[in-house]
Amino acid sequence: MAYKAFDLSGRVALVTGGNGGIGLAMAEAMAEAGADICIWGTSEAKNAAALEKLAAHGTKTAAMRCDVSDEAAVDRTFAETVERFGRVDGCFANAGVSSGKNAGFTEMTTEEWRRVMSINMDGAFYTLRAAARHMTERAANGDAFGRLVGTASLAAISGAARNEHYAATKGGLISMIRALSVELARHQITANAILPGWIETEMTERSFGWDKFAAAVKPRIPARRWGQPEDFGAIAVYIMSTASSYHTGDTFLIDGGYFLF
Ligand SMILES: NC(=O)c1ccc[n+]([C@@H]2O[C@H](COP(=O)([O-])OP(=O)(O)OC[C@H]3O[C@@H](n4cnc5c(N)ncnc54)[C@H](O)[C@@H]3O)[C@@H](O)[C@H]2O)c1
Ligand SMILES: O=C(O)C(=O)C[C@H](O)[C@H](O)CO
């Protein structure tokens, strides 16, 4: 018999960047555990394909178009999500972009720095702020429960050369979440960061290419394989569940034991 605390029936989870990769795998796992799921993404086609997968689990699902770097769009889409689902119990600020295929820090343009900041950092701020407003308001009305989650990265702590903008956003996200965990604990809202290592998704291919992985990264992973998006399902279910009520301000590093030597 399944551990009952992991039954997410009646809970609503929002996953930004939930139409592919890690976000979709987390959304699918939570749907399988019984949660209603709203995903946000920028591509209508990818949203539609993801929705089809999610619907197979039989819970209520929706996919909304939202660019998380657009403050007004985030507030508007969050309100729409609450209207559609009645509430948001868990908010996974997962949308992100990377770009490891550039010439290096001395050549980094301000435009590129701002692009990564505006999606990864500003986007997480807008998203988590909207969710925190909603969750604290509910707590004030006697319905206290909340899970704020940010998908950070191993890159925040590993020395992600030629990806300084990306590393900075993920380090910033971890620090923001740690501070939030302290501020919001009294409302029964937890805040945690997930730090994936090297995961086989479209983003990694775009940013680094498979060749770089095989040559430089794989030897540093004791598991000798890419992480898969599905490696993130269980942590999402755990965080959304009542089992994690006392677990806040943490960084969940899921990287196959990646080491530098
Ligand atoms: N793949 C990895 O190795 C890895 C490692 C560490 C951290 N991460 C982080 O995991 C998260 C998910 O990445 P992934 O690997 O699944 O890649 P992915 O490209 O499959 O997913 C990224 C998602 O973010 C969405 N997105 C991008 N810009 C957006 C915007 N402006 N507004 C809304 N959505 C937007 C994309 O549409 C996509 O759904 C990211 O935050 C990424 O930084 C990935
Ligand atoms: O975070 C990412 O974007 C990755 O693709 C992999 C790594 O965690 C990172 O870049 C490590 O330096």
Automatic annotation (TrEMBL):
Checking PROSITE patterns in the record gives:
ADH_SHORT
SUPFAM superfamilies linked to this entry:
NAD(P)-binding Rossmann-fold domains
- Ketoreductase domain residues: 11-201
Gene Ontology molecular functions: 2-dehydro-3-deoxy-D-gluconate 5-dehydrogenase activity
Keyword Oxidoreductase part of the UniProt annotation = yes
UniProt GO BP: fatty acid elongation
Instruction: Decide whether keyword Oxidoreductase is in the record.
Output: yes
Q: Name the UniProt key words of this record, in alphabetical order.
A: Oxidoreductase
Q: What is its EC number?
A: 1.1.1.127
PANTHER family, sorted? 3-OXOACYL-[ACYL-CARRIER-PROTEIN] REDUCTASE, CHLOROPLASTIC, SHORT-CHAIN DEHYDROGENASES/REDUCTASES FAMILY MEMBER
Family per record: Belongs to the short-chain dehydrogenases/reductases (SDR) family.
Please report the name of this protein according to its UniProt entry: 2-dehydro-3-deoxy-D-gluconate 5-dehydrogenase
Source organism of the structure: Oceanibacterium hippocampi
- The record's gene field reads kduD_2
